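Progress narrative, work stream C.
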Amino acid sequence: MNFVRFWAVFACRNREFLRDRSSLTWNLLFPISLIAGFAFAFSGPGLDLYKVGVLGDTSGWHGSNFFNTRYVRFIPVTDLATALTKIERHQLDMLFDPTGRRYWINDESPKGYVLERMLRGADAGSTFGKQTVSGRIIRYVDWVMPGVLAMNMMFSCLFGVGYVIVRYRKNGMLKRLKATPLRPLEFLSAQIASRLLLILVSTALVFVGTDRVIGFPMFGSYLDLFVVFAIGAISLISFGLLVAARTTSEELAAGLLNVLSWPMTFLSGVWFSLEGVHPFLQKAAQLAPLTHIIDAARSIMLDGAGLMDVSGHLLALAAMSVGAMAIGVWLFRWE
């Protein structure tokens, strides 16, 4: 190894990065904004580890030590059927009825088991009736699987299109294509079609392979689920094109794609339910296409919903796709 050549390349790359003011600024601002976002999302005396839905008015049950338990968030609920569904889907860890002196937990939920022990330990002299959740128990892996598939699709769509086009522009390939009769719309359409085919095939293979091993519940239609993932993939690819429309720096493109992907990963309900988080974050999550993909896919798989039942999510994804694609085509430049 020649140290002189190594040092020359090393110094040149550092100067290139430092002279790219946009990338340098982004590498400083992104971690700061990410930390600030987490601080806002989880601000308070401590992180709530458990979510307990309380049926009815909690003021009617004075003196209970259970309500003084730390790190447990008590969420008022009014509709029993909706709350029981959230117990099945691991969106609530326990449903508690102080007036009726009963509670519901999901037998497949470790948090439900711990909360049951907490309840009986906090009020040892009281008697509570344990209720079973009707219907098939939904495992956590059943609930989280649509989110994992959608998240994997998101990263592939955003980076597989946005980052690649920026690299084409940087190495001069787009400049050479500009000299041909190829038009921007044709080029971008081909990029969308190619990535869409690859995404759907790979997602289908992952779903089929894991389903044969784990065995996921499917109460809806496989065709409806395919339609949801197809429309969702188009929406995510459109956002990738929007980033790549004029970006010339690969570092900046990676930063912009990260700012799209990571907030969606944490705020779209991939790993945990958004029950009990700040209302602003719940509303902000509706602006992310990943949220609509996951919610629609879970409704089809776990609740047996049809396309009409998830039409709101599909319309939101379609509107995002058309808007992002139109802006991306309008802003697109070869060089």
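Work stream C, second folded protein:
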Amino acid sequence: MYWHAEFAWLGDHIAADVLLEADGERFTRITPGVPAPPDARRLPGLTLPGLANAHSHAFHRALRARAQGGRGTFWTWRERMYAVAERLDPGTYRALATAVYAEMALAGVSCVGEFHYLHHRPGGEPYDDPNAMGEALIAAAADAGIRITLLDTCYLTGGIGRPLQGAQLRFGDGTAGDWARRVDSLHDHTGKAGSAHARVGAAVHSVRAVPREQIGAVADWARRHRAPLHVHLSEQPAENAECRDAYGMTPTRLLAECGALGARTVAVHATHLTGEDIGLLGATTTGVCMCPTTERDLADGIGPARDLADAGSPICLGSDQHAVIDLFEEARAVELDERLRTRERGHWTAGSLLAAATWNGHYGLGWPEAGRLEPGSYADLVTVALDSPRTAGAGPAHLAEAAVFAATAADVRHVVVSGREIVRDGRHLLVGNVAAALDAAIAAVTRRA
């Protein structure tokens, strides 16, 4: 397979006339400065590695535009989210997630990290297959043509010392040991089924949802399986206050004492941190996933991304509740939010933000062999138009800046995942009309709202 890119970002520079060759799922040769062979697919524009959406809750997409009226906070929005969670079953969830993942593919995403806690029937009774909902998500990613890390999430309490109630009953497994036994079955089945597009990781929903004495069991499962471990961290000041009242320490310190930080861990949001928290995360090289469009949509706050990166934490990106699905918007928001916080410009280069959107995210999802245009890496690529009203006029010297600070998901023209063409000329080749698929899937779970 051959693709010829007009321009390509090769990690430390942009090259012209780049021939990308692959054998099956992997790149075999990347050669800049050569003419296009007659049989190569031409890629006009700027070609990047596939993007990694490191934090997703697929069913939250059903709330886009439906939860914008009136005032409120994260906590009032959460009640609307629970109402959608009550209506999903494996069939409707697969349809919705397929449409959402197809929307991601149209935006250049080749791999998603699905933070999955909607496990059981309403009321908490397991399905006949206890992993039916997780299997639906894995199947949805295949239907949409992208890879997935299913971050199966342990969620045991409705707050520190409080039982699950209402929609939360669908999330719980009773104990971390029961959670681990269920996830072992999913992990084993995914491996035996030869799901090359899927890997299973672990997540601690938050220190609110997993008691101190059970966090270590989730971290141990991730270590034994050499799997990624993700956790919502200090998204809300109320979470920090509750943790201090219960345990006498911040959530970050609690995770550190439970052995849950480290190079395979990704802390999501990390918005309201102390200086000590930042030092703990950096010293353990714990990754941090910033989700700026969600953090501003839910009025959460601006996280200390630059301080975290300087301390040693790799930064990746996620669209979380999908107020928009646009990794270019997430990337530039990291810089623009820092400008608002400091009233200074120039905290991140375009290249460092592209790294956050590509290889940092793939690494944090347990796919270290993805996210780069280089031999041996997964043959993932996304081509961004340079002739749209947003990107026109940048000139060859500023193409990375055009992608990060001007392009949107609407400028994505071609997407290849594991050597397979998924998007051509802005059209999804597997799902077809993604807007119609979204309309139908969302209507199925909201028409009774």
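The chain has a mean pLDDT of 95. No further action is required on this item.
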